[in-house]
Amino acid sequence: xxxxxxxxxxxxxxxxxxxxxxxxxxxxxxxxxxxxxxxxxxxxxxxxxxxxxxxxxxxxxxxxxxxxxxxxxxxxxxxxxxxxxxxxxxxxxxxxxxxxxxxxxxxxxxxxxxxxxxxxxxxxxxxxxxxxxxxxxxxxxxxxxxxxxxxxxxxxxxxxxxxxxxxxxxxxxxxxxxxxxxxxxxxxxxxxxxxxxxxxxxxxxxxxxxxxx
Length: 213
Hints:
Blueprint: H1 3-12, H2 16-29, E1 38-42, H3 48-56, E2 61-66, H4 69-79, H5 83-86, E3 89-93, E4 106-112, H6 122-131, E5 132-143, H7 149-159, H8 165-177, H9 181-191, E6 197-200, E7 205-211
Parallel strand pairs: 1-2, 1-4, 2-3, 4-5
Antiparallel strand pairs: 5-7, 6-7
């Protein structure tokens, strides 16, 4: 399957449950009312979370970065029907580390399901440190590695039984590539981000959250 076909499969898939969980966590753990905030979404994919965020906070803006041109094309298609949100979003085609991101600028640094894709997870945490403004709120959600292959297969059967084969395969591979909470805590300590917390937020997700000092 080519990049464009894979991006389309992700854009057409129903990720409303985890994406709404992400927004729920932002509301419950985040900085009160982020309306007017300048946000950064790392690994935005087809921009479903970006759109949900911008619709929920109509004075906020967002820079949304992804390394896949095909994903960003799907992101444009997601945003275009909502011009009030689209005009407040800047889509950026780049990988981490990215020289296109302003230093110490963002009030919110967001990311969902990027961490486990990175060969060097430290590049995400270094980007958080470099891009976040003083007191910025960070919310990073990702898959959590299951304790066994049997549990991984149970998750695939529960959440991707009716999905296209490419999504089932990617979900399975992503579960095995994901980190355990203790490993993420170690990553944060190494990056000098000990002020951020790590929590288990679903049967297959962990979240990193808190403010950057």
